[in-house]
């Protein structure tokens, strides 16, 4: 496949490039090997035809931005500041290697939500408490998440953290220590499976994401447990009502009904 086409979304009618958010340690003084790995990650994102999103901060996200910029990729930074002056002088954050800075005025923690919601795919590189917050948001919102293992920080303990959470959100985790292999796997999963996973805001009422007292039916396409009253749409086959979280899942079911169990 042509490198510049690999990042295009597989969703019919959508031609925007995928946006991959790189979330990681903003601390200075990272070791040379980890910085080089983050730069390679940015390069692979750009070569795949995807847009790189960072928190417009120093450290590993900046290294990824540099890598993407070096090979001609587009880089968007989500700034905690209200303006370029605040970005540079209040938060001491870089502007180089970014094509666009979006000023949120939300501070360091507030902009984490914008980082995640602006990204189709999230990649975790190293990181400590700030990156842990971004991981939590991405996981709660059912994102496709890549973990670049071997980069230290929370990447060493993410499996244990998520196991302790005991919460199913529809998020998908992929682990690899090689930037190119990680990006290839993430794009493959997104194009073939995860693009069907609905946004947690796609419904008019709140979706119950785990099987509890209210979540008594399951969307056969994406597997999400639902309160029947909050289903996005339904379909009746042989007197059996099938519930879907959104119209996209219903459309997929109608196109390939034999692929899905409705029992």
Automatic annotation (TrEMBL):
Top-rank taxon: Bacteria
Domain TRASH: 219-257
Listed GO CC annotations: cytosol
UniProt cross-references to SMART domains, sorted A to Z: TRASH (SM00746)
UniProt cross-references to InterPro entries, sorted A to Z: LDcluster4, LOG_family_nucleotidases, TRASH_dom
PANTHER family: CYTOKININ RIBOSIDE 5'-MONOPHOSPHATE PHOSPHORIBOHYDROLASE, LYSINE DECARBOXYLASE-LIKE PROTEIN
Protein name: TRASH domain-containing protein
Naturally occurring in which organism (per UniProt): Thalassoglobus polymorphus
Organism lineage string: Bacteria, Pseudomonadati, Planctomycetota, Planctomycetia, Planctomycetales
